[in-house]
Fold this protein.
Amino acid sequence: MNVLRTLGALVLISHHLALGCEKSFDKDNGDGHLIRKILKFRTGVPREIGEDKSYDLHETRDSEPRGAVSQGLVGLRGGGDNSEKSMGFMRAVTIERLRGDLETDLQMRLRWPRPRNPEKGEVLVRVLACSLAPGDLRVHRGDCDYFQAPPSFPYIPGGDICGKVVKVGDPATSKFKKGDTIISIFNMAPRNGLAQYALVKESIATKKPTKATPIQASGLPSSALAAMCAIEKNMRKGDRVLIIGGSGGVGSHLIQLAKAYGASYVAATSTATDLLLKLGADRAIDYRSENWWEIPEYQTREGKFDIIIDTVGGISSWKRAKTCKCVKNGFQGGRYATTCGDQPYLELHGVVSLFWWLIRCVFSRDWWTRLWRFVPKWTYTMMDMDGEKLQRLCGLVDEGSVQAIVDPTSPFPFSREGVLAALKLQDSRRNHGKVVVKVSQPWHVS
């Protein structure tokens, strides 16, 4: 049982935490708590799901909101020694509960406690921008509540940020200093990013690329990193590549990275065909008028793809790849890599659903396509939450090989209405590039 729980934790450390999933919420149970203990998922003493929620939804002025302690947030109450407490209050967007209506659950707090002082291996940053991902909606809906339910309520959504360092936990050992502009990927689940200040673990952070603005840089940690991992784990130099979903947060970076890593030909699907060509695709396929599996030029021996990378999810694309003639089979080195699996929206509510998901969607197909080589080799690709890889990605941005892609409607303002609109766009899956909220100005650092 513990092995399965640990496997589930490892799976959700992957980019699936940042990508794809929706639906219902079941009450947390003892197993879920144990998972988070195994992963050191909680900090402090949580307020359990289902307890009284009789706090002010709109604004907290004279007392600490419930849930602040378990999020590493401690407000100044006046008197006593505040050396281990926060530096005061901040503005923050919070969500009151799971499985509710964002219209009523999402609030802008004007006096939310700032995070505690950073410890060794941590830095406190003033958040400049926060990019969203499907994982933000998944957490609110409780789709993976078995592993990702917030430790307390209300909680602050958002996880991928760009910010300026205002305090270092241990200056003698830290790789950052006050004033550095850094980017950070979410830690285990996307939380605590949509606030003026955030605690960041140095192990999952790196300095911002010099050629990217804070708005652009905030979009790199999850989606671009997931794209880089997919390319490095699955693509070979000289490959002909088809990317299903080429204009989303992951797909828009996949096109660029495939070219940077030596793909001989890249085709991608999306309605935003002009964007695909601008990013370097050799062929943009508008799925409203063309089916990628029926295009004649890909049916020939020379025109077949070596690999398909699916960022959309769903079993239908894999079924077509198995039977169509546009991708090589296993004997010819053909591969099919997915970042989403069979469902665009992953749901895991307990050990049984985790077990069947691993067996049916991950292990079983991975194994049988290794043996039955008349179809492409199928792989489920996970993201590595690694600060060193994030640093390497930023190097590609500074070299000019990769450009951070932000949806044209971004940045959204840091207000209740602005964040709500950003979350709705993210939920629609119609964004072209990353959805970003501008939290504060770069020069507003204290």
About this structure: The radius of gyration is 22 Å. The longest helix spans residues 351-371. Confidence is low (pLDDT under 50) at residues 1-64, 73-86.
